[in-house]
Amino acid sequence: MLALDHLSVSYDGVPAVVDATLELADGHVLAVLGPSGSGKSTLLRAVAGLEPAVSGRICWDGADLAPVPTHKRGFALMFQDGQLFNHLTVARNIGYALRLRRTPRAAERVAELLALVGLEGYADRLPATLSGGERQRVALARSLAVAPRLLLLDEPLSALDAGLRERLAVDLREILRAAGTTALMVTHDQEEAFAVADRLAVMRAGRIVQQGDIAEVWRAPADPETALFLGYASVLEGAAAAALLRAAGRPAAPAVAVRRSALVVADDGPLGGVVVSARATPELIRLVVDVDGIGAVDAVGRLGTHPGPGDPVRLSVDPSRLAPTPTGR
Ligand code: ADP
Ligand code: MG
Questions:
Q1: Hey, whose CA ends up nearest to atom 19 of ligand 1?
Q2: Which CATH number fits the domain that encloses residue 77?
């Protein structure tokens, strides 16, 4: 298990990561999500042992990693641009670390990895002949070759175009699950985080502002800024919130903010609507719903079934999801 304990990292006295406390249990994939410059790469580099901590600790299974150099941590790193060796074939790229370690039966392991990332038949190709997505698959297979106890991914899909990124994100999730890999991924892209990870930490200005199960964080963002960053269309407050509550047959609660994306919670107190668009990951669904008298509602939540456009849905407002209106908004 990886644990960050009040970790701070600075560059020339300027803080980049501030007081980060984070846990990642074995077999989980944690996405650290934050805007550019929020300190994500710095956090990852510190875990890899490439940046020293100013204060706090990074521990693996309870032991402080400070005295352990990068190459002895048993972690693998994968970057946005894969960084393949261009003069080596796909198979030799993937088997690189295995050859360095003189691992027995390396060829079998390479074949296994090629199958894992869906690149059977690509063994003898050179990187220059591959598409961006294929290159990232090779980079991933190479990172997984020595079965790292932790895989560190820095914006692994950001260099790919949108359609491919979405598909590869789902594949990445499957591959990590199939290999049982514990992974820490940093990204600025919320779709990527939701598609790949099962745990989420939100980072802003060097600080981790919220962390937890991905559905938990999405259903109940810590504050409006986090909600907006997670991709919510907007945060409803005041009159708009009251109108929604009335439509849902709930008593109007003055001075509440309804987080629109927290509306789909359970099946009680249904609010009828028609799905305008639906987008789903295995665990979460995001709906734009046209509700009579209210207009379009953008909602995110867990549903047992994934309705498609035009299907009637039942929404409910869960009073426990209402939060006091933040001051100043
Ligand atoms: P992110 O990965 O979230 O975009 P980074 O961790 O790269 O953020 O950067 C966090 C902050 O640290 C930024 O303000 C950035 O300018 C600064 N920073 C990053 N790397 C260095 C460096 N090598 N030297 C000085 N400042 C750096
Ligand atoms: Mg970065």
A1: 42
A2: 3.40.50.300
Give distance in angstroms: CA of 16 to centre of ligand 1. 6
Domain that holds residue 25: 2-227
Give pLDDT tens digits for 27-54: 999 999 999 999 999 999 999 999 999 9
Burial grade of 80 (CB within 10 A; 0-12, 13-18, 19 or more):
middle
pTM > 0.90: no
Residue 1: predicted pLDDT: 96
Average pLDDT over residues 2-27: 97
CA of 108 to the centre of ligand 2 (A): 35
Domain with residue 262: its CATH number is 2.40.50.140
| 187 and 255 part of one domain | no
Higher pLDDT, 192 or 278: 192
Q: Which atom of ligand 1 is nearest to the CA of 206?
A: 10
Q: Are 211 and 251 members of one domain?
A: no
Residue 306 above 80 pLDDT?
Answer: no
Give the residue whose CA is nearest to atom 21 of ligand 1: 11
Q: CA torsion sign, 209 to 214 to 216 to 219?
A: positive
Say if residue 176 is in the same domain as residue 289. no
Strand partners, 130: none
Rounded distance between C-alpha atoms, residue 86 and residue 96, angstroms? 13
Measured from CB, residues less than 6 Å from any atom of ligand 1 are: 11, 16, 34, 36-42
Q: Ligand 1, residues 17, 41, 208: which to mutate, most atoms within 8 A of Cβ?
A: 41
Tens digits of per-residue pLDDT, 70-113? Answer: 999 999 998 877 789 999 999 999 999 899 889 899 999 999 99
Of the candidates 259, 270, 266, which has an alpha carbon nearest to the alpha carbon of residue 297? 259
Instruction: Report CA(39)–ligand 1 centroid distance (Å).
Output: 6
Whole-number Å distance, alpha carbon 14 to ligand 1 midpoint, is 10
- Give the number of the ligand closest to the Cα of residue 46: 1
Give the Å distance between the CA of 41 and the centre of ligand 2.
4
